[in-house]
Write a structure and sequence with these properties.
The complex is a heterotrimer of chains A (99), B (523) and C (631). By secondary structure, chain A is an all-alpha fold. Helix content of chain A is 78%, strand content 0%. Chain B has one domain (5-106, 117-509). In chain B, a hairpin with a 4-residue loop joins strand 1 and strand 2. Chain B is globular and about 70 Å long. Chain C is mainly alpha-helical and 631 residues long. Helix content of chain C is 73%, strand content 3%. Chain C has helices spanning 4-22, 30-53, 85-108, 115-134, 138-156, 163-194, 199-204, 211-228, 236-240, 246-255, 260-267, 269-273, 276-299, 303-323, 329-356, 374-388, 394-408, 411-440, 462-483, 487-496, 507-530, 543-549, 554-602, 607-630, and strands spanning 62-72, 75-83. In chain C, a hairpin with a 2-residue loop joins strand 1 and strand 2. In chain C, helix 10 (246-255) packs antiparallel against helix 15 (329-356), helix 11 runs parallel beside helix 14 and helix 17 (394-408) packs antiparallel against helix 18. The radius of gyration of chain C is 31 Å and the shape is globular. The chains are: A mainly alpha (99), B mainly alpha (523), C mainly alpha (631). Chains B and C meet through helix 7, helix 12, helix 14, helix 17 and helix 18 of B and strand 1, helix 5, helix 6, helix 7 and helix 23 of C. Chain C: InterPro entries: NADHpl_OxRdtase_5_subgr, ND/Mrp_TM, NU5C-like, Proton_antipo_N. Chain C: It comes from Streptomyces fuscichromogenes. Chain C: One of its GO terms (biological process) is ATP synthesis coupled electron transport.
Chain lengths: 99, 523, 631
């Protein structure tokens, strides 16, 4: 099967993620969309790795996963504390750098 | 290694500034005396520089050179030619008078004020300006010059914005608003100029590969450094713009009246007599040496702008109601003469322009400081608030008149020599411009005498009837300036001897020779 | 001997410095210091004169080089003095009349609290005027030229508390500055033409230059002369200058400073000789002014202003003569000297009258003063006879020569100029007779002033009358002394050159015509002012009279065109500077302010909108990359 189709899929996933980031207000959903974009990137890396026949892309995919995991930890913590102080998970409510 | 005289001349006031700023709050008078002594010591050093300088010797003397930022070819290079020597002497000479005249200008308004030691700050800033101006005159490295050319804006900004005339007509609030307007305007104008110059400085580096004035000029002269015509013109414009703002040349002049109007008289003198001279000096040293061809290319435009400055400045001075603004516009007119002399590209013009810088410094200082004494007595800058002062304060009126006569270039006083040299120098190459510029002398008489008539003559106005005459400290400021004006008017040879060789060099930089007279035999 | 020349100037300069810097300590003796130093200068002058007389005619030029003043490349100005027959004549006139007037002022200014300063200014004037006539180059002459202008400014405005005096002083300086502009352009032209402006080389090589250049130099010198010597069109300051104390009017605005223009033209004779067009303009200016001044003099009721008109007119004669070239140079200077005597005498007489009349200047308030002030009457009368050219007195010899010379110019020009000079003589006789009759003859017409003080006319003290007597003696005998055996001609000829023109009419006819004019002028004046009582209030008068009272509307013209126009110009420029030039700057600043205000709105804090801009930017970059690839 032509690996290019996987690239199309990656692009589609990335676009879905990006759209979600732009139009959704719920911080959790935005967050998940970001994850989606990261995974789309991962997919693309892996495909490129396969296409070019070296392992660089796969290694970077691992790095991305690590970064994503770290990001989840920090990001979720921020969202939780935001929800505690503002009683809302909407990103638009947090438009100021203060309460 | 010999004693670094030039560095010392600049470092001494800088150290003095720090020391003055560090004087404890309660010891205000000590700070004043310290500043005065430092400025006097700097004057001594400047005189030593003048004496050690050999007019017949090398172009740049007393040179110092140390590597500084090696990666960019920036060096700490100092050296003075005849033009720089007299301007350093002027700067060092005026400082003690500026300090003495501003003796009480920065005392805290109420005793026990919580303000941060304004007196110490005032005198420290003045000394800081002196240090930077002196090093600007000395720097032969373009980058080094640029740094101090820009850095002097900082103390000037605080001097204009932080210290103004007492007893403002519209109350302290309005005064403070106008002051900060003037200070910001000063800063922005000069920053824009400096920014453009920075671009040109970087451009110069990319073309020449170093910042050394002497090296670049040399390479330009013997053809090893070729610049495309358009490159040279752009770089020239970048430099010239900054200097024209500082000088100030019409139509970049409008910051000067505001700045001079709002600052105290000594600071106004500092602006127009000292700081602005860096602009005209830099035209002579950098524009003409680095970009001779572009300078010649731009000459017609610059001459016309200078001519407009002369006439326009004088006409506006006639129309002013505020004494300080009037002096400011008069200065704009005089700067027109200086720039005219520089770009007329004749020996007389350039020697005249250099002398003009010195003489204008002294004459404006005399006029403006006396005006400051007058204003401090009555608490108003408006001409209409005065009248008949000569009756109650004849010495004040007399010194004011002498300052005014110097401003209108009366023969026998120093400015006449320089103004006439500029006119002759311009006339020999551009007769029409020379003749139009001559109208400036009629207008100068008009604004000066109108000012004198309205403030000093006529019936005594009630508000000035109890005005005291000049005090000993004030006389100490004015008398030496007047003596100098007369001395340099009668015997300017000591200055011309120093300046002439430098001008000759500059003339050969731009490959120009003086026009020959029509009838050779007469000489 | 040369070394004495600098002392001529140094003495009064020292006086000025001492008196002006000395302060109140010198108040009591200031007038004597001033007079002493002025007399010292006169004594030096006499010593030098005697020395010159002892020399050969062609060896009478002394040069003293003091030091190099402004050395810049080709521009070489030295402080060098030149004493020759021409400057010697002036030195004696200046220091002699100057000393007499110093003496007179001791009495005249006795009660003025600022007397010390007055004498300081007078000494300053003497120093500057001597510098003017002794300078050996035009730039140094320029220093003296403006120096006398400064002294004149200070002295006209001596009573500064009077706004009219302050205004008159300013006006005098400004009008003179216009003239000075001419001098400075002339010097620049000389520099570009000859490469120098020292008398020697310029005048000896004048003929090498093109006529166009010489004409330009000549016209610029004439402009300078017009300013200093109150010639049309720069004459308007002289009448107002009468605001100054009367001794000042006598010394500066009659005898010496105002004649500096004539000196300049005669000194630059070599240039004018080679520029006939410039000469023609000079004669025209002279002729116009001599009529202008005379007409103005007829209409003034203020005794000093009438005399000022007369001064203008008499200097017109001198300028006319100077414009005639070698025919007239000697006579211009001769008239200048005799005029110095009689006009100074007349002014001192007028001062004496005012002194006795509570400073009244309106001649309609005088009348019959001959009984009260006999000495003043006699000396003034002698001056009067001299100025109208009564046979045998000074004015007769000098003025007659000028009229002859004007005819001798030849051609139509000669006729026109000569006729003007003749008509001028008639008008001179008229207005001077008018002054004489209104002041010293007829009924007394003075009234109490607003405080109820009736003037008590009285003769002035000796210290004032002695100078008047000396000047009267000069007015009577100087002309005759100079003319007998053509003494003055032989004295000056080596410097100025001389040629007899070819007059279409003989000297005798000219003298006869002058006498007829004189009688007509005196006669009309007698009919109008001697036979009939003088009305206390001036009658409305004809159109010409009214115009002449206003200086032939010249001032009104200046006011409307220059003063008003200038005011409008400066006011509109102030507006332009504020709104346009500064407006552009402030507008730019405001523009940036507005722009940043807009841009700030983009920073709304919504994470999503930042995200949009990020994605948009990324998309743009990608698109750009693709586009570049495609291209």
């Amino acid at each position: 099967m032509n690996p290019v189709y996987y690239l199309y899929l990656a692009a589609l996933l990335f676009t879905i993620g990006a759209t979600g980031v732009l139009i959704r207000r719920n911080a959790i959903v935005v967050f998940m969309c970001i994850e989606l974009m990261l995974n789309a990137c991962n997919l693309a890396f892996v495909v490129f790795s396969r296409m070019h026949g070296n392992l660089d892309g796969q290694i970077i995919a691992f790095f991305t996963m690590v970064v994503a995991a770290a990001e989840v930890v920090v990001g979720l913590a921020i969202i939780v504390s935001l929800f505690r102080t503002r009683h809302s998970a909407s990103v638009d409510d947090a438009s100021l750098m203060k309460l | 290694m010999s004693f670094p005289l030039l560095t010392a001349t600049a470092v001494l006031p800088a150290v003095g500034a720090v020391a003055t700023a560090a004087v404890p709050a309660a010891r205000r008078t000590a700070a004043k005396w310290l500043a005065l002594l430092v400025s006097l010591a700097t004057l001594v050093l400047a005189i030593v520089v003048m004496v050690r300088f050999d007019p017949g010797g090398a172009r740049y003397q007393l040179t110092e050179s140390h590597a500084w930022i090696a990666d960019f070819g920036v060096r700490y290079e100092l050296g003075v030619d005849g033009i720089a020597v007299v301007l350093i002497a002027l700067t060092a000479l005026l400082m003690p008078f500026i300090i003495l005249a501003g003796w009480n200008d920065a005392d805290p308004l109420e005793t026990g004020s919580k303000r941060w030691r304004p007196t110490q700050g005032f005198f420290a800033l003045i000394l800081a300006v002196e240090a930077m101006v002196v090093i600007s005159f000395e720097a032969t490295d373009v980058f080094l010059f640029y740094i101090f050319f820009e850095a002097m804006l900082i103390p000037m900004y605080f001097l204009i914005g932080g210290f103004g005339d007492r007893a403002h007509a519209q109350g302290e609030e309005a005064a403070s608003t106008q002051r900060s307007y003037a200070a910001v305007k000063f800063l922005l104008y000069n920053l824009v100029g400096g920014l453009i110059m920075l671009a040109a400085v970087i451009g110069l580096y990319t073309v020449a590969g170093n910042f050394s004035l002497a090296e670049i000029a040399q390479a330009r002269a013997n053809g090893t450094l070729h610049m495309a015509t358009s490159t040279e013109r752009w770089l020239f414009l970048g430099f010239f713009f900054a200097f024209a703002v500082k000088a100030p040349l019409w139509p970049l002049h409008t910051w000067l009246p505001n700045a001079m109007q709002e600052s105290t008289a000594p600071v106004a003198v500092l602006i127009t007599a000292v700081v602005d001279k860096v602009g005209t000096f830099a035209m002579l040293r950098f524009c003409l040496q680095l970009f001779p061809e572009a300078s010649k290319w731009a000459t017609p435009t610059i001459l016309v702008l200078a001519l407009i400055s002369i006439i326009y400045g004088a006409l506006l001075a006639v129309g002013q109601r505020d004494i300080k603004r009037l002096v400011a516009y008069a200065s704009i007119s005089h700067f027109g003469f200086i720039i005219l002399g520089i770009f007329a590209m004749t020996s007389q013009g350039q020697s005249g322009a250099t002398l003009y810088m010195v003489n204008h410094g002294i004459s404006t200082a005399a006029l403006m400081l006396v005006a400051g004494f007058l204003i401090s007595r009555r608490g108003s800058r408006l001409i209409a608030d005065y009248g008949g002062v000569q009756k109650v304060a004849p010495v004040l009126a007399g010194t004011f008149l002498i300052g005014g006569l110097a401003t209108l270039s009366l023969p026998g006083l120093a400015p006449f020599v320089s103004e006439f040299l500029v006119l002759v120098g311009t006339f020999t190459r551009y007769p029409a411009i020379g003749i139009i510029a001559t109208f400036g002398i009629v207008l100068a008489a008009l604004y000066t005498l109108v000012l004198y008539q309205r403030t000093m003559t006529g019936p005594v106005k009630p508000a000035v009837s109890a005005m005291p005459d000049l005090k000993a400290r004030e006389l100490l400021v004015v008398t030496p300036l007047i003596v100098l004006l007369i001395f340099l008017g009668v015997y300017p040879k000591p200055l011309t001897d120093i300046v002439n060789p430098a001008v000759k060099q500059t003339m050969s930089d731009v490959h120009k020779t003086d026009p020959k007279p029509a009838v050779e035999a007469a000489k | 001997m040369e070394n004495l020349i600098a002392l001529l100037i140094a003495a009064p300069l020292l006086g000025a410095a001492v008196l002006l810097v000395g302060g109140r300590r010198l108040d009591a003796v200031g007038q004597w210091i001033g007079t002493l130093l002025s007399t010292t200068s006169f004594v030096f002058g006499v010593i030098l004169f005697v020395d010159l007389l002892g020399r050969n005619t062609d060896d009478r030029t002394l040069i003293q080089h003091l030091y190099t003043w402004v050395p810049v490349a080709g521009f070489q100005a030295d402080v060098t003095f030149r004493l020759d027959q021409l400057s010697m004549t002036f030195v004696l006139l200046i220091t002699g009349v100057g000393s007499l007037i110093h003496l007179y002022s001791v009495g005249y200014m006795e009660h003025d609290e600022r007397r010390r300063r007055f004498f300081g200014y007078l000494n300053l004037f003497l120093a500057a005027m001597l510098l003017l006539v002794l300078a050996d180059n035009y730039l140094l002459l320029y220093v003296g030229w403006e120096g006398v202008g400064l002294a004149s400014y200070l002295l006209i405005g001596f009573w500064q508390h009077k706004p009219s005096a302050a205004t008159a002083a300013k006006k005098a300086f400004l009008v003179n500055r216009v003239g000075d502009m001419g001098l400075s352009i002339a010097i620049m032209l000389m520099f570009t033409t000859f490469g120098t402006f020292a008398f020697g080389p310029v005048l000896s090589h004048a003929t090498d230059a093109s006529e166009g250049r010489l004409t330009a130099i000549g016209l610029m010198l004439l402009l300078a002369a017009c300013g200093k010597s109150a010639q049309v069109p720069l004459q308007s300051w002289l009448g107002d200058a009468m605001e100054g104390p009367t001794p000042v009017s006598a010394l500066i605005h009659a005898a010496t400073m105002v004649t500096a223009g004539v000196y300049l033209i005669v000194r630059s004779g070599a240039i004018f000789n080679a520029a006939p067009d410039a000469q023609l303009v000079v004669t025209v200016v002279g002729a116009v002014t001599l009529l202008f001044g005379a007409i103005v003099g007829c209409a003034k009721d203020d005794i000093k202003k009438a005399l000022a008109g007369s001064t203008m007119s008499q200097i017109g004669y001198m300028v006319l003569a100077a414009g005639l070239g070698p025919i007239g140079y000697v006579f211009a200077i001769m008239h200048l000297v005799t005029h110095g005597f009689f006009k100074a005498g007349l002014f001192l007489g007028a001062g004496s009258v005012m002194h006795g009349m509570n400073d009244e200047v309106d001649m309609r308030r005088y009348g019959g003063l001959r009984k009260y002030m006999p000495v003043t009457f006699i000396t003034f009368g002698l001056g009067y006879l001299a100025i109208i050219g009564f046979p045998g007195l000074s004015g007769f010899f000098s003025k007659d020569k000028i009229i002859e010379a004007a005819f001798a110019k030849g051609g139509t020009e000669g006729w026109i100029l000569g006729t003007c000079a003749l008509v001028g003589a008639a008008i001179t006789a008229f207005y001077m007779t008018r002054v004489m009759l209104m002041t010293f003859f007829g009924e007394k017409r003075w009234q109490p002033d607003e405080h109820g003080h009736e003037p008590h006319p009285h003769e002035s003290p000796k210290v004032m009358t002695i100078p008047m007597i000396v000047l009267a003696v000069g007015s009577v005998f100087a002309g005759g002394f100079f003319s007998i055996g053509d003494r003055f001609l032989h004295w000056l000829e080596p410097i100025t050159g001389h040629s007899e023109g070819d007059s279409p009419i003989s000297a005798g006819v000219v003298t006869g015509a002058t006498m007829v004019c004189l009688i007509i002028g005196v006669g009309i004046a007698y009919l109008q002012y001697g036979r009939r009582p003088v009305p206390a209030v001036a009658p409305r008068g004809s159109l010409l009279t009214r115009a002449a009272r206003r200086d032939l509307l010249q001032d009104d013209f200046n006011h409307v065109v220059l003063v008003r126009g200038g005011e409008h110009l400066t006011r509109s420029l102030v507006y332009v500077d504020h709104t346009l030039v500064d407006g552009v700057v402030n507008g730019t600043a405001a523009g940036f302010g507005g722009l940043s205000g807009r841009l700030r709105k983009l920073q709304n804090g919504y994470a999503r909108s930042y995200a949009v801009s990020m994605f948009g930017g990324a998309a743009l970059l990608v698109a750009a990359t693709l586009l570049m690839r495609a291209v």
